[in-house]
Amino acid sequence: MFNIRVAESAGFCFGVKRAINIVERELKRSKLVYTFGEIIHNRFEVDRLASMGVQVVNRVDDIKKGDVVVIRAHGIPFTEERQLKMKGARVVDATCPLVKDVQQRARMLRDEGYQVVVFGNREHPEVKAIVDYSYGSAIVVAGLEDVGVLGEFDKLGFISQTTKPMNDFISLIPMVFQHTKELRVFNTVCPATFQRQDEARKLAKWADVMIVVGGYNSSNTTNLALICKEVLSNTYHVESESDIDRRWFLEVSKVGVTAGASTPQWMINRVVKFLLDIGGKMGNG
Ligand code: SF4
Asked: Domain range for residue 229?
């Protein structure tokens, strides 16, 4: 028998909820709705939407005049959005307002003559879009090593991918400053992400085992799992209840559950139900 605590912040953030609502609203108007890239990084939710008539496209060439195309929560490059509009598609922007804010700051900094530096994962769609908004000029740094080889600039603007850990972003600022005479920093880490990470860390300190639910391709879920693992080695990142091994819970009294911002509530419920079925009970213990 073990106690289960679920983080209050687990599951959809407001930006993801908003994007899903926009897709569902568009589905009421058209039988077929396209999303440019997966609307969120969760294959189960993407499958649910597909069963309702949502198709994922990844190339502008796959879109024709009159198609309804929803832009995913973490945005797309400016140039691709323009190409979609030029093709005559009806583009519905579900980019999270906080992601839009980073894109616009990247552009503004570039327009004002700053070399833009983005702390993030250069392969992540959000970061690719931010780079595009800086007219392709932004430099992406993944950590200390990349900052070390930045070069020298008169004016430098430093921003972060929204889902990066706040402490990591802040810790890089003094190092970035060594590469410029003037540094402008915008804290573009999403507060919902920060709150989720803070709560996950506290829950991992309480727990004997942490379960972090979310897509393996979800950046914020992966970061959550890493943060929990720093505190508790018995941390497991799962996509669904079928990834859970009962042996993780032998001689365990406290199990914490959290989930990424792109994890639907119904999936969290399935994981919790599984834990209840194998002997867990809700409570602080
Ligand atoms: S994690 Fe933050 S930035 Fe990303 S969609 Fe959610 S609210 Fe927006």
From this structure: 2-11+191-282
- The response to whether residue 192 sits with its C-beta less than 6 Å from ligand 1 reads yes
**What per-residue confidence (pLDDT) applies to 285?**
63
Q: pTM above 0.90? A: no
Ligand 1 pocket, 39 CB below 6 A?
no
Distances, alpha carbon 227 to alpha carbons 94, 121, 133, 182, 193, in Å: 28, 16, 30, 32, 12
> How many structural domains compose the chain?
3
**Nearest Cα to Cα of residue 19 among 64, 54, 57, 67:** 54
- Take atom 5 of ligand 1 and give the residue whose Cα is closest: 15
Which of 61, 96, 131 lies at the terminal end of a domain, its last residue?
Answer: 96
pLDDT score at 218: 87
102 Cβ inside 6 Å of ligand 1? no
Residue 245 belongs to a domain with what CATH number? 3.40.1010.20
Specify whether 223 is located in the same domain as 200: yes
* Residues 90 and 161 grouped into a single domain: no
Atom 2 in ligand 1: residue holding the nearest Cα: 190
| pLDDT mean across residues, the chain | 95
Mind telling me the catalytic residues? 126
Residue 96 CB–ligand 1 contact under 6 Å:
yes
Residues 210-254: tens digit of each pLDDT:
999 999 988 889 989 999 999 999 999 999 999 999 999 998 999
Gap from CA of 158 to ligand 1 centroid (Å): 19
Amino acid identity of residue 196, one-letter, is R
User: What's the rounded Cα separation, in Å, for the pair 43 and 24?
Assistant: 17
